[in-house]
Amino acid sequence: MILGPQGVLQGLAPGGIVVDMTTNEPKLAIEIHEAAQARGCHALDAPVSGGDVGAREGRLSIMIGGHPDVVEAVMPCFRLMGKTIVHHGGPGAGQHAKMTNQILIASTMVGVCEGLLYAYRAGLDLNKVIESVASGAAGSWSISNLGPRIIQNRFEPGFYVEHLIKDLGIAIQEAKRMGLVLPGLALAEQLYLAVAACGHARSGTHALQIALARISNIDWLNRPPTWAGSSTG
Asked: How far is CA 147 from CA 73, 104, 130, in A?
């Protein structure tokens, strides 16, 4: 907790810097920035992307909002954690960039899961499908890194479904505030709510495959092997 009587700012000396690397509402980042200024301190919003692998290997993408001089002061710390470090603008800009990231992730994951579901029902070797498409126009981080986990029924979290649902809710709220109509985002939120309803709120975001398969009456976790030419398996 940053704000409030027991928050980080209460113990921060004048001139100190607080960096919020969680994903939150952009308006909260602005509120933290203003509260920090009132105490003679500084604040940055710096949410990240890259999952568990990126965190372990120091290859996170860090999206920063705040004053340029403060960003520069903290840059040595950012470089220890991240490979891609981008300052997007003033307070809240980092959170807006993260919302963009979450919208892209959710929509891309729908395509990854539906593509693999189609390939499975068509009787294709799913590993060969990934080999075919990953280096082409359909390639993505999700198909290359999470596709194999989907095939292997490994749905442990790099990022929890329940956390993505929270983030998509923020993105929808911000889109509404800006007068944007984003039907794909709204659909993705509904699909992930279905994943949570299936008991996978604490699974990884790629557990979307389980819920989408269930809609087509396929028990993905206990699926039989595919076979070439099948259209009814």
From this structure: 39, 16, 7
Extract the tokens encoding 81: 């954690």
Q: 127: left (phi > 0), else alpha (psi -120 to 50), else beta?
A: alpha
pLDDT tens for each residue of 140-160 = 999 999 999 999 999 999 899
Does the annotation mark 98 as catalytic? yes
Q: What is the CA radius of gyration of the chain?
A: 20
Residue 221 per-residue DSSP state: G
Backbone φ and ψ of 83, nearest 5°: -100, -40
Of these residues, 98, 128, 166, 176, which one is catalytic? 98
Chain segment 62-100, per-residue pLDDT in tens:
999 999 999 999 999 999 999 999 999 999 999 999 999
Question: Half-sphere exposure of residue 64, counting CA atoms within 13 Å on the CB side?
Answer: 24
Contact 124, 63 (CB under 8 A): no
Amino acid in position 60: L
Domains of the chain plus CATH, in order, are 8-89 (3.40.50.720), 96-222 (1.10.1040.10)
